[in-house]
Amino acid sequence: MADVQSSGAATDADRSVKLETLDIFKGIDPSTVEQIARKAQSRTLEKGELLFNVGDMSDALYVVAEGRVRIWTVSAAGAEVTLNVLTNGAVFGEIGMLDGGVRTAGASAMLRTRLTSIARRTFYEALDRDPQLVRNVIDLLCRRLRWTSARMEDATLRQAPQRLARILGHLARDHGKATPRGIEVVLKLTQSEMAQWTAMSREGLNKVLNRWAEERLLIQDRGGLIVRDLERI
Amino acid sequence: MADVQSSGAATDADRSVKLETLDIFKGIDPSTVEQIARKAQSRTLEKGELLFNVGDMSDALYVVAEGRVRIWTVSAAGAEVTLNVLTNGAVFGEIGMLDGGVRTAGASAMLRTRLTSIARRTFYEALDRDPQLVRNVIDLLCRRLRWTSARMEDATLRQAPQRLARILGHLARDHGKATPRGIEVVLKLTQSEMAQWTAMSREGLNKVLNRWAEERLLIQDRGGLIVRDLERI
DNA sequence: CGAAGACTGTGACGCGGGTCACAAACGTCC
DNA sequence: GGACGTTTGTGACCCGCGTCACAGTCTTCG
């Protein structure tokens, strides 16, 4: 239980995420956080395993302790569209947890993934006790809204290549590492995975990527991308 | 100031919106609401007048007391896309008010419109005093997120006619009146206005609408639409 | 090592829907 | 009741991008 909290010497646990480091618990009384941590559940998903599906009841929020989670929806035709890919330290599922509604998107593990889940009861108890937590939650929700609005805009009024450019920008910023050759995207994704994300076809994405590579705007190193000129993309 | 609050005999003021009737103030101590109302500002916009633009600083939330407000963004090419059209009793601009960030969308009046604005300071004072208000705000934000996610899905994975169908459904539900002939959409919009909303061209929209009219799924009565068979659309 | 499977690269083709260019119908203001 | 601005109706044309159908290349595992 809550082994995310285990802190010790240089073990594997070091790569884990500690709750108190999360934005949402910033400025919160450590004892409150610890109490939440004690009541939190830990759970491991295998690669490809489904955590929840669209329409499921929701009563918990999740934190990615280690691994990779994909959030998606399905079209009427049954095609899955990726909304986001989350790695260590990401919080998700908070809307369902907060309002008790059904899940509007599905979540599944892209790799073996360890999650920490916090139940609604636990969270609301803390919410009642600490006004700062309230502020943090509101901030989180506002950030989410700004993010979805931005992506919404992309989706409605940008063309496919521009949408891809946005995603690359996001990847470079959130999952990139600066190297002499450019910003290296650490998060390795196949073209199909990126295509689902940008809501375009794998073939189309391929062509755009190669065009950019020819223009020396990026380097493709078998799945590993290096973005050279983010501005011009 | 706060003439939205004026309650009296059968005057024009009756059509106005009273703060305490809003969802966001549901279950809140009347004296708290009244205090907010006293500090609230009232403002009238002429038809077409801009309330705020993308990138503006934000420090207030607005309530439509009477009239019609359009929320929009602009594409890189400069085309405006409508995100929503709001009428009496609608609350908007809360994100900017809550997190103090810049506005991500613009707002302007489609008709002569009276608004009530509530400043951040005022709101946060009430937020500190009443935990129920906190719940309501979180609920509001969750609802917003669910709404944007849904529209996001529409935008990315439905085709133009389906997007239009969604908007019609929304119009029928929120701005419709049941009549023997079908659900009459009270909110009169020109085809151009609807086209901006569905992110399609006016011509394209026209053709779809006429096709549906031929199939007797709806009746067009110069701007006034009557939806007959919402299911099949 | 060799075969099977996953991933990437590329052309041919088609369709949805945007753009353009009008014509017709309606409103509204002297 | 003209006359002008706005809204609606329609066809011709075009382009982005998805689909299909392959051919290479990498990976993995018996």
Helices, strands, pairings?
Two copies of one chain form a homodimer.
Chain A: H1 30-39, E1 41-45, E2 50-52, E3 60-66, E4 69-74, E5 80-86, E6 91-92, H2 94-99, E7 106-109, E8 113-119, H3 120-129, H4 131-157, H5 160-175, E9 176-179, E10 182-185, H6 191-198, H7 202-214, E11 218-221, E12 224-227
Antiparallel strand pairs in A: 1-8, 2-7, 3-6, 3-8, 4-5, 4-7, 9-10, 10-12, 11-12
The structure holds a DNA duplex (30 and 30 nucleotides).
What features would you describe in this structure?
By secondary structure, chain A is an alpha+beta fold. In chain A, 39% of the residues lie in helices and 24% in strands. In chain A, the strands form three sheets. Chain A has a four-stranded antiparallel β-sheet with strand order 1-8-3-6. A four-stranded antiparallel β-sheet of chain A has the order 2-7-4-5. The first copy, chain A, has a four-stranded antiparallel β-sheet with strand order 9-10-12-11. In chain A, a hairpin with a 5-residue loop joins strand 4 and strand 5. In chain A, 33% of the residues are buried. Chains A and B meet through helix 2 and helix 4 of A and helix 2 and helix 4 of B. The structure holds a DNA duplex (30 and 30 nucleotides).
